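Study both lines:
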Amino acid sequence: MARILALDFGTKRTGIAVTDELQIIASGLTTVATKDLMAFLKTYFEKEKVELMVVGEPTQKDGSASQSEVYIQSFLEEFAKQFPKMPVKREDERFTSKMAFQTMIDSGLKKKQRRNKALVDEISATIILQNYLYNA
């Protein structure tokens, strides 16, 4: 089997999570500057076998698309050009940042460590991937 990769896409940085090869466990991988995301993905896909990419779908409380969806759609169009054979699924990412922050508190991270927005993005990507695995 191959891995599933998940993105918590942001305009500045993107959190990335990945499953093990058996697609049982979701783990945070890293956070990269969004401007470097395509290059990172190209390198990662060359090293690891990935069969699916899950991208967070930000929505408002009423279910309508978030303002950041415009940027995600632009990224997805470029992604489809560069990786036409890689399937992409979307997963609701409402409240993942809040859940990530709470996870940091629950795990005992100090206040200074909880200010690390890159870590919040990575944990958010992991939550998106866990939700996808749970609902798949």
